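Following up on my earlier thread - several people asked me to post the actual chain instead of describing it. Fair enough. Here it is, all 110 residues.
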Amino acid sequence: MKKNNIWTNINRKFLYTKLVEKFGPYKEWELKHTPKKNNKDYEEFCEEIAKIIGAKSGRAVSNQIDWALSTQENTIKEGHITTWLRNKHIAKEAGFIDNSLIPKAIICEY
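Reply from S.P.:
Thanks for posting it. Predicted structure:
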């Protein structure tokens, strides 16, 4: 039986749209994984998004954001390819990332 996946494209679109509204595009962030040194606002944002969409925690939300920021320059495992691609696509569509965070090619292990 397939488990219920809350990470639908609609929920990802909601996440990245709200993320850009609150913190701007990634290229304006001060740090690699958070918008600025004092990341309390970011942690609260992730917790709030988690509550709205039904994610387990704010950390689960920030994990999705990390997928959008990941370059995956090396091999990516089959189980992660869909998560990685969906986050990249929707984050770019929402204006969070640009082409500089999308590799020209990827290798997937099957």
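The mean pLDDT is 88. That should answer part of your original question.
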